[in-house]
Specification:
CATH class: Alpha Beta
Strand order of the largest sheet: 7-6-5-4-3-2-1-8
Number of strands: 10
CATH topology: TIM Barrel
Largest sheet: 8 strands, parallel
Structural class: alpha/beta
Order of helices and strands: EHEHEHEHEHEHEHEEEH
Strand content: 15-25%
CATH architecture: Alpha-Beta Barrel
Helix content: 25-40%
Number of domains: 1
Distance between the termini: 11 Å
CATH superfamily: Copper homeostasis (CutC) domain
Shape: globular
Number of helices: 8
């Protein structure tokens, strides 16, 4: 893969982190609770991922699911989590904060960027919920973030490719646009051509069956009907297919 064309893998477990590295990804975005869009993982998970990975490790800083309008208490949690990520050796943090009116919360975002210090900062898909994408992009740049993950304010990145391309041109060298949302081996080349982007974000997950022989029925620890004996993990083979594809693009 060319030096500036990269795949970032959204990983919800240590197994997925290791699959990302095995598949040739440039880095992982480490999250807990991917079914809610990703929450801050535990310090133990961050520490072990840092110990085991020789690729980039970015950590999402998101205290809860739902919207991106945070209380003072929630923001204090985010401050502490940024500092914890820094102490644990993460290469970057991934954040996203909005105001009640759908603007980027520049003041709070800038404070987290400053706390991150030498770590890279990415603004995540909270951007896709912002009122005015062009204005939001300028606000993100003003906050100090240097990467933006976006589906182009569409259900998936391919559907939002035209906006992603416009935003990438608007940003120029000031910020990296990274398409994410529904990115798969079968649409990655088309997405790369349509957006002109050089970095991409995917989970590359497949179903993994539980090794449990005894299985209790009729009880769910999560949402009603959720299968406790089925989970999804990033797949090294799928990731390798995508990194090889990126390597072969002109």
């Amino acid at each position: 893969m060319s030096q500036d064309r990269q795949l970032e893998v959204c990983a919800g477990s240590l197994a997925s982190c290791l699959a990302a590295a095995q598949g040739g990804a440039a880095r992982v975005e480490l999250c807990a609770s991917l079914e809610t869009g990703g929450l801050t993982p535990s310090p133990g998970m961050i520490a072990l991922a840092r110990q085991r990975l020789d690729i980039g490790l970015h950590v999402i800083v998101r205290p809860r699911g739902g919207d991106f309008l945070y209380s003072d208490e929630e923001f204090d949690v985010m401050r502490r989590d940024v500092l914890a990520c820094r102490e644990l050796g993460a290469d970057g943090v991934v954040l996203g904060l909005l105001t009640a009116d759908g603007e980027v919360d520049v003041e709070r975002s800038r404070e987290l960027v400053q706390l991150a210090g030498p770590m890279t900062t990415t603004f995540h898909r909270a951007f896709d919920m912002a009122r005015d994408p062009e204005r939001a992009l300028e606000q993100i740049i003003a906050s100090g973030c240097r990467r933006l993950l976006s589906s182009g304010q569409a259900p998936d990145a391919l559907a939002g490719a035209a906006l992603i391309r416009r935003l990438s041109r608007q940003a120029g060298e000031r910020l990296i646009l990274m398409p994410g949302g529904g990115v798969r081996p079968d649409n990655l080349a088309e997405l790369a051509r349509a957006t002109g982007c050089r970095e991409f974000h995917a989970s590359a997950r497949v179903k993994v069956a539980s090794a449990m022989r005894y299985r209790q029925t009729g009880i769910s620890m999560g949402a009603a009907g959720q299968d406790e004996y089925d989970r999804r993990e990033s797949c090294a083979e799928t990731i390798r297919t995508m990194t090889d594809l990126l390597r072969g693009l002109d």
